[in-house]
Design goal:
Number of domains: 1
Shape: globular
Distance between the termini: 27 Å
Structural class: mainly alpha
Number of strands: 0
């Protein structure tokens, strides 16, 4: 279970980068409350067809990537 994400930037900045990378993601898809990362990870895992571990790693890597998302 994932209770939180390790983010280098504020969530709003990370969310915008995620939307740049995957244009299908919406604000609704990226609803996140600190301490409850599980709901976000499970939703994105299902929507994107990737494992929860992949999703968590992807979000955290985007957070640590300065500038435009890659």
């Amino acid at each position: 279970m994932y209770t939180d994400l390790k983010l280098e930037e504020p969530w709003e900045d990370v969310k915008e980068k995620l939307k740049e990378i995957n244009l299908e993601l919406t604000d609704e898809d990226l609803q996140y409350e600190p301490g409850n990362a599980q709901a976000l990870i499970d939703h994105l895992s299902s929507k994107m067809g990737r494992s929860p571990e992949d999703i968590k790693g992807w979000i955290e890597s985007v957070s640590f990537n300065e500038g435009k998302a890659s």
